[in-house]
Amino acid sequence: MSADSAVVRPPVTSSGLFAKVSRFRGLLMLALGLLVLLGPYLGMSGYLARTVMLVGILSLLTSGLNIVLGYAGELAVNQVFLYAVGAYVTAYLGTAHGITDVPLIFGIVILAALVIGLVTGIPGLRLGGWSLAMVAFFMVIILPSVVQVLSKYTGGPLGLSTPLPTLFGRDLGDRGVYVLIVATVIIWFALARNLILSAHGNAFLVLRQSPILAESLGISVFRLKLIVYVISAVPCALGGALFAWLDGFIAPDTFTFAMALSVLAASMFGGATSIYGALVGAFLLQYGQQQLTVFAQLELVIYGVFLLAAALVFRNGLTGLFRTLVARARHRGWLPTAPALRAAEQPPTTGLEPIEGRPLSCRDIGKNFGGNQALTGVSIDAAPGRITALIGPNGSGKTTLLNLMCGFYTPSAGSITLGDTTISGLKPFKVARAGVARTFQTPMVARGMTTREFVASGRYSQQKVSMLATVLRLPSFRRGVRADDSEALALLELMGIAQTAGTEVSELPLGTRRLAEVARALAARPQLFLFDEVASGLDPADLDSLERAIRAIRDAGGTVVLVEHNFPLVLKVSDTIHVLSRGELIATGTPEEIQRDARVLEEYTGSSGAETVAGLEADLEVAGTDNEGGR
Ligand SMILES: Nc1ncnc2c1ncn2[C@@H]1O[C@H](COP(=O)(O)OP(=O)(O)OP(=O)(O)O)[C@@H](O)[C@H]1O
Description:
Layout: H1 17-37, H2 46-71, H3 79-97, H4 102-127, H5 129-141, H6 143-149, H7 151-154, E1 160-161, E2 166-167, E3 170-171, H8 174-196, H9 199-209, H10 211-216, H11 221-247, E4 249-250, H12 257-270, H13 277-291, H14 293-297, H15 299-312, H16 317-331, E5 360-369, E6 372-382, E7 386-391, H17 398-405, E8 413-418, E9 421-422, H18 428-433, E10 436-438, H19 451-456, H20 467-471, H21 475-494, H22 510-523, E11 528-532, H23 540-556, E12 559-563, H24 567-573, E13 576-581, E14 584-589, H25 591-596, H26 598-605, H27 613-627
Parallel strand pairs: 7-12, 7-13, 10-11, 11-12
Antiparallel strand pairs: 1-4, 2-3, 5-6, 5-8, 8-9, 13-14
InterPro entries: AAA+_ATPase, ABC_AA/LPS_Transport, ABC_transp_permease, ABC_transporter-like_ATP-bd, LivM-like, P-loop_NTPase
Pfam family, one: ABC_tran
Subcellular location: Cell membrane
């Protein structure tokens, strides 16, 4: 199915207040930004202008933390270090070398941020989680010592004065600095918004919520986290340069641990996963600081209270609270609901474009979990254009074998090949990129994405639209969005759930989520499909859709491996069935052969083969029910 032949992007059907506000939200934000930008020319007081500038600078730092915490899930609170680097580089170049040109300084500062991001991020992210958080804390703690050691350049405890910036040789006065700061903030948030509201932003969401899902989408978790971490350094360093120009003087006591906490508090209070939450949080913190003298005396205590309040009362900050209230109001009918995406007015798609399935071969596979021998000498094959089922009682090793096929486990013995490629031992994201897609026993979906976006995320590793094209909204970005949309909608239609395209995927019922997962797997256009108990929890209508989809994949030439407890489905769709018991392969055959296999009947029913097929089905069905929602 090509993007072009697929379903046309469905029209938005609702009108009214919501649609109008959504359509003009970008314009409203821009108008608000312009109003603030022109503030000094419209009679804004000097005090208010300074507040706006400080809020803007703090929001840049908070935005840096939001990106790394809210989207990469890493508590890297090193924004103040990068802020200091930006400020000192600007001050030093201005005083020692007379370099004050804004684009040049911005270029140097961004480069410095990227280098520091890479140098600290590579080891920090390799160690992961708390180690990275410690590296980040450590960077802030050692800051005064670094300033002292480099006092020849930093002025040590005495600080450095900073000449005013120039733009192409012309001095920027106080108003010019104001415009520069506000314009930088507006541009940064516009670019950040473009990145977050894109396939890359959706990949960030998946990355934070489920590294396992990210890897099975072909995303290198380490690489993407590093990219997010490095990007997050940029606004912090720019904020430092702007602060140096704003105050005209910098000293080590500006870059304190308390400031690091204020950035964390602003992020928590505004909402770490909201694009504009950084502005809300920064405004509250900065305004509070200026208005309440008690703030100066009890700074750390107040930040602590802010953090506690954010953690206990509204975990996604004020913007999250706002979103929840709006959702509730919509639910109760007090506000118009979001525009529903209508299924395309076309008959359901019944076929797929040809898939170049490749043969899967597992040879003498053994898997040992610290003394627990989960698999021993298992050899199975799965051919393109055929459905190969893997059945067996609970604990017989089916999921272990599936996890070996997709790289989540490495075999203790034996090897797995897909066509000519040995995939055993490869990292999961490399196996995914080699052409393997899977679903999970408990569907893995990311919160904050529509079903359409979730299905399109299956295409991410083939994504050819760069982050640069995305933030600048170049034509290639728009082409990518159109292709993603039409492909995702066509696949949702194939699964019979096109009407859910605009619904939050994590809110779908279990059965529909399973079908969305199959559509997501299909979107990756893999050669090998691994379905892990995909039928459990489906009602008859969903089961029909699933059966149709599995057959469509087979008929298109895909290689399908089905781990399943739903025996009627297995019997209906499979070409070959492998039966595992206690980690060993006990039978291989067609559905008819397996139904008559004495060893299989004995394994399932405990008898020597006299039991009926109905008894076997019943046993397998019970096993399926027991297992539902297992992992
Ligand atoms: N990560 C792990 N660590 C230790 N043991 C494991 C691990 N994963 C699986 N096992 C063990 O391997 C054996 C096979 O488990 P597996 O989940 O593959 O069985 P299964 O056939 O998929 O069962 P089910 O139908 O219940 O999903 C079990 O004894 C299980 O306890």
